[in-house]
Design a protein that fits this description.
By secondary structure, the protein is an alpha+beta fold. It is built from six helices and ten strands, in the order ααβαβββββββββααα. A hairpin with a 5-residue loop joins strand 2 and strand 3.
Length: 233
């Protein structure tokens, strides 16, 4: 796979302050596979990650997106390759790798009046890859509380150009968007249906004003309306 020369950045998502429950996070907790902060376990049996920390930029609300992002896009990963291999000489982990992921830009829903860089028909980011153990098992690594960004799925992303290339603002700026419907698709290495997310919504906080919650089960036009209401015309 050839990269497009636009730079690559590691996608690392996390939370500021106390743990917040997203609709998708709630359904994983309900299913008994969520992160340790929610169910008292240190991780998942098939996913290494999904913890909590702090975002690079505010990423939860529509106002955050238009204040800090260069573009809001609907995008689909089309190919990936292993990159940034880190080998360990001690312990049960043999090596870790990231994934260099190429995305197709399906639709640009919003752009800053003065974006740092124009959005092309394709772009690249580095996403969490794999953790390989001395036993030979290969375990998915994920960002914190966010989609892993896998081929075969579609995502709503608020992107900012950084010194290392394109990056999502934070965990709140990457939303599952299969069939162009909010919170439908891959999250934390798992595939969630509309019904799964609807059940998980019961676990989300009533004071959650995130853009993700606002577009739960809704389409691109709903995203555009939320951005316009926040002043992103």
């Amino acid at each position: 796979m050839s990269l497009h020369g636009e730079g690559v950045s590691v996608m690392q998502f996390s939370l500021r302050g106390s743990v917040r429950s997203r609709p998708v996070c709630g359904v994983l907790a309900f299913a008994g596979i969520a992160a340790g902060a929610l169910i008292g376990r240190t991780g998942l049996t098939t996913v290494a990650g999904c913890g909590s920390g702090s975002d690079a930029y505010p990423s939860q609300t529509a106002k955050d997106w238009i204040a800090y992002a260069d573009h809001v896009v609907v995008a689909t990963p089309t190919q990936e390759r292993d990159t940034n291999r880190r080998t360990f000489t001690k312990g049960p982990i043999r090596y870790q790798v990231d994934r260099a992921v190429t995305f197709r830009t399906d639709n640009v829903l919003w752009s800053s009046r003065r974006p740092t860089r124009a959005m092309g028909k394709a772009f690249d980011m580095t996403a969490p890859g794999w953790q390989v153990y001395t036993s030979g098992s290969r375990i998915k690594r994920t960002p914190t509380d966010a989609p892993r960004l896998e081929t075969g799925h579609t995502y709503l992303l608020a992107l900012r150009w950084t010194n290392d290339g394109w990056a999502a603002l934070g965990e709140g700026a990457a939303v599952p968007f299969d069939d162009h419907i909010g919170d439908q698709g891959e999250w934390c290495g798992r595939v969630l249906s509309k019904e799964d997310v609807a059940r998980g919504e019961r676990f989300s906080r009533s004071d959650d004003n995130s853009l993700e919650k606002a577009v739960l089960g809704r389409n691109e036009q709903a995203v555009i309306r939320e951005l316009e209401r926040a002043g992103g015309k």
